[in-house]
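Before we proceed, please read the two lines closing this message. Let me know whether the structure tokens fit the sequence:

…
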Amino acid sequence: MAEKLAVHSIAYIVSSPWKRALQTAAPLARAASQHIHTDERLQERVLSTRHLENWMEVLERTYTDENFAEEGGESSRIATARGMEVLEECWSRPEQSVAVITHGNILSLLLRHYQRSFGYEEWRLLTNPDVYVLERQRGEQGPPSIRRIWTD
């Protein structure tokens, strides 16, 4: 992944503090000679605090009912809001190119914020890792252009 992103001249890296996200961020940070900043708002959403045999069905429901949350879980609306706080902060940073390292469900919710057609089926098609580039011109408001650059 570090090689693929080298062309983007990453100048700032923010990651979920969870181990697997940091393991993804580390080679990129080394290649870009950048520090990894962690932000708890990028950690994966907890679907429920109890074991769910039907967790995929529950997850699918969270894409159609953004206010739905299982016991001890976080709704899509709340999870999206915390992730979007991070993205909005990144948009206002002086660096031209920022890498945001997070987890599949949060990534899908952030993409869905800008592209409403991104839902459960698109989440199922995400790979691990997966890389999307969100671009907009400096000072521009509104949704960014979104393109997937990761290929297995």
